[in-house]
Amino acid sequence: MEFFLDTADVDEIREIASWGILDGVTTNPSLIKKSGRDFKTVVAEIASICNGPISAEVTALDTAGMVEQGRALKEELPENVIIKIPCTPEGLAATKILTEDGTKTNVTLVFSAAQALMAAKAGATYVSPFIGRIDDTGADGMALIAEIMNTWDNYNVETKVLAASIRHPTHVLACMQMGAHTVTMPTKTFRQLMSHPLTDKGLAGFMKDWAEVEAAGNA
Ligand code: G3P
Which stretches of the chain drop beneath a pLDDT of 70? Predict the structure, then answer.
């Protein structure tokens, strides 16, 4: 299983990378806007912090434009940058062409198992179903992950399922129970996964008692 961060905030990426278990980072145009920084500069910096796949999204809507942008990003940015492409017919064609170039891709904005299958057939390295945005409509985002994983089980699909639009730790755990290969989550969710009040309380108790052991000269 892979744990990715879904942010373009390099301070947050540095913090989580220091935990030693960060496998990759996903960005999108909205996250780049939020960073307030130059697109290529910030993606290159992220790629220097984390060795894993770093998704950089194309913004052209036509196939030729996506392919041109994808090739330029691969040319200009570090080796571990992969190309994020929207799940549209034009994006599907661009995914096929870039895959034939040997470029790794992440097909994004996936909201149905049918879209995920189409992206896999085009050779996508990752497909990104958006759980939280489905939940936001009143439907069940996790049901989509289950449907995709069940479909994957029937065939020898190499494309990794990258669960995105994660809102809370329960999403992450449910994805892992269903066998999703990768989850990308905001920093808040990453921190929540590691946090438990009984760990904090227990550690404080151990530290207090150890101070008394030291004071007694028994350390
Ligand atoms: O990176 C794409 C996805 O994870 C977006 O999440 O929170 O904007 O629905 P969100």
Answer: none
pLDDT at 68: 98
Q: What is the DSSP string of 8-72?
A: --HHHHHHHHTTT---EEE--HHHHHHHTS-HHHHHHHHHHH--S-EEEE---SSHHHHHHHHHH
What is the C-alpha to C-alpha distance for residues 60 and 145, in angstroms, rounded to an integer? 28
| CA 130 / ligand 1 centre spacing (Å) | 7
* Residue of 33, 40, 84, 160 with catalytic role: 84
Task: Tell me which residue has its CA closest to atom 6 in ligand 1.
Answer: 165
pTM comes to 0.95
Closest atom of ligand 1 to 136 CA is 9
Structure tokens at 5: 């961060």
- State pLDDT tens for residues 113-158: 999 999 999 999 999 999 999 999 999 999 999 999 999 999 989 9
**Is the Cβ atom of 45 under 6 angstroms away from ligand 1?**
no
Q: Is there an atom of ligand 1 within 6 Å of 6 CB? A: yes
- Give residue 57's Cα distance to chain centre: 13
* 108 vs 106: CA distance, rounded Å: 6
What are 25's strand-pairing partners?
A: 5, 54
160: annotated active-site residue = no
